[in-house]
Design brief:
heterodimer, A: 305 residues, mainly alpha, MetI-like fold, 2 domains, 78% helix, B: 324 residues, alpha/beta, Rossmann fold, eight-stranded mixed beta sheet, four-stranded antiparallel beta sheet, 10 helices, 24% strand, globular, binds adenosine-5'-diphosphate, binds magnesium ion, cell membrane (chain A), BPD_transp_1_N (chain A), MetI-like_sf (chain A)
Chain lengths: 305, 324
């Protein structure tokens, strides 16, 4: 088990190293930040001076080495646009993104777990059919469209909820639903199919032969087994909720990491782009690591091997 | 002595989308306390379907219990509400399944899986049930039961897992144990140990055993009486010696020649039955065995012979009179 943890942590660090490297080279395809920052009438000398002050005149390899050494000390470089350390800018926006991700995940789980269970247990019934139809809609509707639709209905027409901005729990409702809808649909479907598989297992029949009710057999013997594949996906979804809120944050003017990423690209802010990409990757691999470790908690076959 | 379980003319159907399958067609049997009734027959003859029907474990739909009665403790189990049926499962009538590798929940300790039925039926507290579960493991001959109760199924061998299944089944001291091919999935050396264990526990607790098996050696050693099934029908029922010495149904004789006997060293050469078991979606008319029967008469294709008593305690379903 200890060996397993050490191996997974090492693997995680390797992935982060690769992401940092790829991020460094790929952001430079976004265009030249110096051109963007200067007014059109700037002279060659002014341009050269700005480039030098930002360090972009140095050889690429040179820049790469100092960037990577900086990372070892959690130094993500200076944001060109905000004139502050990129790490600081990210940390400032992070709480808003976490709020949104937590709310969206809460929505996802509250909707998908009961839906998945009911659909599996009442397989083939009208309930199952309507759950699966909702899943299809939920999975095939793009987030920006759902967001705009929700704004039209609940903010513009009914005026129940604010259309954008932050400040109160009410502000969270529409973005959380928009963001969580896809995950909710996916997890409901996955839990349903996983539970249907498990309900056909011999040990469920053993549980019933002991005298357990059908409901008790599902909750006591089915859910934990069915949750093994679901946990992986929930983990990955947490990752994408934290990072993939770009569209939702844009639609609802929610100033989290997603919007920050868009801003960084717009301003060709290399260090900030690198930092946001690396941050999102880190969230993903760390969540993955946690998922792998939680498998061990759920499944004694992993824990004891 | 009176029977602890009696089935009369049981009919079971599976109504599938396009077809109806009738895996159980008029099965009757009975067992007394301390007695072992062996149920034999080729694969697909409805043995498991009958066994699961006794505990009403078939999913309904598609399953329908369309006729007959299952009497235990003075009640017809087919008429009991589900709630009362639950009080019987694992308590008065328990079952051991064929494959111990998949019949235990991999995520729960074996102790917890035994304790579960004790808590359910005997209202024991968590700690009482734990202690009782350790005791149950000891009874089925698992060494070091205190420690092993906390272990998980994957830490047990196949034979040990089947012992755990037996411990679960017998935890509440049922009056009837249904064992559906309890040794088929196990190594040959382990098979004998499991059968010995069952026989020992039966002597101790006095439960009746309905033993579904493929092994005639097991039948010869453990069974008191034998029920032979073919195409969902009972075709011969007799004391074990009678069945081996004087079968009265051609299928029984053919079956005896086609199945292995673990108790005969070297074993007699096997003589497989020609043809294949009946297709339950469209069973042949008359006696279901007639297309494969060497002794078939013209009437066999139109008349279904009922199971009738030919000698005291010996019934057969065949148009031929006398022993073969
Ligand atoms: N759940 C089910 N749905 C449809 N058919 C079934 C089901 N269970 C059993 N059967 C059919 O019933 C017949 C008897 O099966 P079974 O009782 O398992 O035979 P045995 O245990 O004697 O080998 C088989 O032909 C099988 O296809
Ligand atoms: Mg079977």
């Amino acid at each position: 088990m200890i060996g397993f943890i050490v191996k997974r942590v090492g693997h995680t660090l390797l992935v982060l190293f690769c992401v940092a490297t790829v991020a460094f080279f790929i952001v430079r395809l976004a265009g030249d930040p110096v051109q963007q920052m200067l007014p059109p009438e700037a002279t060659i000398e002014q341009e050269r001076a700005l480039r030098a002050s930002l360090g972009f005149d140095r050889p690429l390899l040179d820049q790469y080495v100092s960037y990577m050494t900086g990372l070892l000390g959690l130094d993500f470089g200076q944001s060109v646009f905000f004139h502050r350390p990129a790490f600081e800018v990210i940390m400032e926006r992070l709480p808003l993104t976490i709020d949104l991700a937590v709310a969206a995940m809460a929505f996802t789980l509250i909707v998908s777990i009961p839906a998945g269970i009911v659909a599996a247990v009442r397989r083939g019934s009208a309930t199952d059919t309507s759950v699966m139809a909702s899943v299809l809609v939920g999975q095939s509707t793009p987030a920006f469209w759902v967001g705009i639709l929700l704004i039209l209905i609940f903010a513009v027409n009914l005026q129940w909820l604010p259309a954008s901005g932050t400040g109160s729990p009410a502000h969270l409702v529409l973005p959380a639903i928009t963001l969580g809808l896809y995950s909710a649909a996916m997890i409901a479907r996955l839990l349903r199919s996983s539970l249907i598989d498990v309900l056909g297992e011999d040990y469920i029949r053993t549980a019933r032969a002991k005298g357990l009710s059908g409901f008790k057999a599902v909750t006591a013997h089915g859910l934990r087994n069915a949750s093994l594949p679901v946990v992986t996906v929930v983990g990955l979804e947490v990752g994408s909720l934290l990072g993939g809120a770009i569209l939702t944050e844009q639609v609802f003017s929610w100033p989290g990491i997603g919007r920050l990423t868009v801003e960084a690209i717009t301003y060709r802010d290399y260090p900030l782009m690198q930092a946001t990409v690396l941050f999102l990757a880190a969230v993903f691999v760390i969540v993955n690591l946690v998922v792998d470790l939680s498998y061990a908690l759920l499944d004694p076959r992993v824990r004891l091997s | 002595m009176s029977s602890v379980l009696e089935i009369n003319d049981l009919h079971v159907e599976f109504r599938l989308d396009a077809d109806t399958v009738k895996p159980v067609n008029g099965v009757s049997l009975s067992v007394e306390a301390g007695e072992t009734l062996a149920v034999v027959g080729e694969s697909g003859s409805g043995k498991t379907a009958t066994a699961l029907s006794i505990l009403r474990l078939h999913p309904t739909p598609p399953c329908h219990y369309t006729g007959g009665e299952i009497l235990a403790g003075g009640r017809d189990l087919l008429k009991l509400p589900e709630r009362e049926m639950r009080a019987i499962r694992g308590n008065e009538i328990a079952m051991v399944f064929q494959d111990p590798m998949t019949s235990l929940n991999p995520l729960k300790s074996v102790g917890a899986q035994i304790a579960e039925s004790l808590r359910l039926h005997q209202g024991l507290s968590r700690s009482q049930a734990r202690a009782q579960a350790v005791q149950a493991l000891r009874e089925v001959g698992i060494p070091n039961p205190e420690q092993r109760a906390g272990e998980y199924p994957h830490q047990f061998s196949g034979g040990m897992r089947q012992r755990v299944m037996i411990a679960i089944a017998l935890a509440c001291r049922p009056k009837v144990l249904i064992a559906d091919e309890p040794t088929t999935a196990l190594d040959v050396t382990v098979q004998a140990q499991i059968m010995e264990l069952l026989a020992g526990l039966q002597e101790r607790f006095g439960m009746a055993i309905v033993l579904i098996t493929h092994d005639l050696g097991v039948v010869a050693r453990c069974a008191d009486r034998v029920l032979v099934m073919y195409g969902g029908r009972p075709v011969e029922l007799a004391a074990v010696d009678e069945v081996f010495a004087a079968p009265r149904m051609p299928y029984t004789r053919a079956l005896l020649r086609s199945m292995p006997r673990s108790d005969v060293p070297g074993g007699a050469p096997l003589d497989p039955i020609p043809g294949s078991p009946p297709n339950l979606f469209s069973p042949p008319g008359g006696c279901a065995f007639h297309p494969r029967c060497a002794l078939a008469l013209p009437e066999c294709s139109s008349t279904v012979p009922p199971l009738t008593e030919r000698a005291p305690g010996h019934s057969a379903a065949c148009l031929l009179e006398g022993s073969l």
